[in-house]
Amino acid sequence: RSSARSLLRFLGFIFWGTAAAQAFGGLLVILMFKNYGYLFQESYLSLPGWLALATALILLPTGVLAVSISVKCSRNQQGTLMYLLLLLLCLEMSSAALAHSFCVRSASQLETVMGYLVHQHNWTCSQDPGNSAVDVIQRKLQCCGVHNYTDWLKTSSSSWYHATCVPASCCKEKHSYCRGDLGHVEQLSEEGCLKKLEGQLCFAMLYIFWCCTVLSVFEFLAGVSNGILMRHQPFHELRIL
């Protein structure tokens, strides 16, 4: 019984720490889909982020109850803790399943959307860096094309003439005088935008997935510890039900 009390107190502090981790993961997913919302057709892709925020909010009173029960057992608090642990388990399993599924689905969708935006982008060999969605992504992520800069040589704009450059947004930040000239390929970003977007997306989703998985183990231990303490304080009435 003393071990169950100590473990429950320890897990109460763990719940407070993981609440911050869950809130960070939720905000990461929500802000990512807000910044790149035009690349995703489904608006519900940010749902794992909102579920993670809801989990973080519920973790705070759960941690308070766990610490309180470890000091002084209360039948009402023990019952409430069990309900909260069950609710958290449902939220986390849903969030983890959605995060893993969206990471796999969004990868193929990103390639299709990015390829369409690059192919339809009207650009010329000029000094205008452009403010289209593709230009914004290329400047923000320091990337060029879908897979690399050669994707720009296959677009509808380059089919009218022999392209000697790519959009200026492909230039690296350290080359302030770069205008996308193919004669100076070393001034262009080497990596494609698809790989960087997939990396950001899967990092955010897998972060939530593993947070939820690890936290579920902690909640199972908290439920077992709480159950052990409840066994030593049997029901004398059914009012709590």
From TrEMBL:
Recorded GO CC terms: plasma membrane
Membrane topology summary: Multi-pass membrane protein
A Pfam family this chain is assigned to: Tetraspanin
Entry keyword set: Membrane, Transmembrane, Transmembrane helix
Statement: the UniProt record of this protein carries the keyword Membrane: yes
InterPro entries, A to Z: Tetraspanin/Peripherin, Tetraspanin_EC2_sf
Taxonomic superkingdom: Eukaryota
Chain ranges passing through the membrane: 7-30, 50-69, 81-102, 204-229
Subcellular locations according to the entry: Membrane
Name of the protein in its database record: TSN3 protein
